[in-house]
Amino acid sequence: MNRENLLPQNDIHRRIIHLDMDAFYASVETKRHPEYRKMALIVGQDPRKNNGHGVVATCNYEARKYGVHSAMAGIQAVRLVPKEKLVFVKPDFATYRAVSAKIHSFMHEITDQVESVALDEAYLDVTHNKVGQESTVQLALDLQKKIRREVGLNSSFGVSYNKFLAKMGSEYAKPFGRTVILPSEAKRFLGMQKIEKFPGIGPKTQEELHKMGVYTGADLQKVDVLVLLKKFKKMGYFLAQHARGIDLRPVITDSEVNRKSIGIERTYEPAIYSRDEALSKMRNYCNYLETKLKKRNFRATTVVLKLRDNDFVTVTKRRKLHHPSDDQLDFYDVAKDLFDSTNGFLEKGIRLLGVTATDFEKENYQPINLFDY
Ligand code: TTP
Ligand code: MG
Ligand code: MG
Description:
Elements: E1 16-21, H1 24-32, E2 40-43, E3 58-59, H2 61-64, H3 74-80, E4 86-89, H4 93-110, E5 114-118, E6 121-125, H5 136-151, E7 155-160, H6 163-172, E8 178-180, H7 186-192, H8 203-211, H9 217-222, H10 225-243, E9 261-272, H11 275-296, E10 298-309, E11 314-325, H12 328-340, H13 345-348, E12 350-362
Parallel strand pairs: 2-4, 7-8
Antiparallel strand pairs: 1-6, 1-7, 2-3, 5-6, 9-12, 10-11, 10-12
Helix pairs in contact: 4-5, 11-12
The structure holds thymidine-5'-triphosphate and magnesium ion (2 copies).
């Protein structure tokens, strides 16, 4: 068996931008207080005025030179930075939210396929965009320029064919970074990265990987998929994909979050004539659906299969699950049964294939899941 078959097929046809503001809160504060421009500015309570309490929310790049970083105890920052260079500013979330809203409005001028990850960061799927710009890089540059012009702040972006690579890209050349990772360059780019830079690899996994002699993406690329699966279970599955530049997670728009069903469909040209090929696509879809549902803490009770043949004959078939689920295997079992209960599609050729999970039941507790990232 070719072990690469364990992994989903790569999709290199999307155009994704990840944009992240540089030292976001700190930059907003520097703009408001230009007199602090040359200082090491920390956003957070000043521990010297607060009985030693306080945490660094973020700091400017001047402070980072001294080793200060987000989530560090404020008191430690006081030890690291010379007194005359250090300034603390209390966070002002109302302003950060307002600036964030403005930045988002610029993004929505380009596309509504915007997924906010935090106040200062979002993914944009610009495969189809409102401005009809062919060049993704130009779109990203224009957005970066507009943010700088209109709100006076710097950002960094990554451009690639999936979220994982776009995010790696925006981190890569911070601050004021502009990184483009083409499909042909992905493997080499990832090979160069330390595994600490891979989003989703926590300190424990890093340690385990180091024990296996894995320090870089190139090392990770050499580890057999089965070894990763056995050792890290589901996380290993994602590690193997990421090392190869595979990430099928869609951009989930903020409005979609409230939608009542989640589905994915694709058209095929040439059409699909093989059952195995159709089932393999469906397996990828179900994997997608699981990720999307888990992210929102939803479980579906119904699966819908959609097929269209070369004569544009379309059917949708739906079936209830035995129990509410967010498990791709449950979706796949039902989708496969539904598929096998149709007639004539493979002979005619399938030009559209889709699977939807619907009739949600929201879990009222949030299980801690290491694989949600
Ligand atoms: P980040 O984008 O992680 O950091 P940043 O924008 O300050 O710096 P960078 O140039 O490296 O992107 O986080 C965005 C904002 O979220 C940050 O300005 C402050 C806030 N934040 C916290 O409050 N606590 C944290 O632990 C982190 C990481 C961020
Ligand atoms: Mg940032
Ligand atoms: Mg961020």
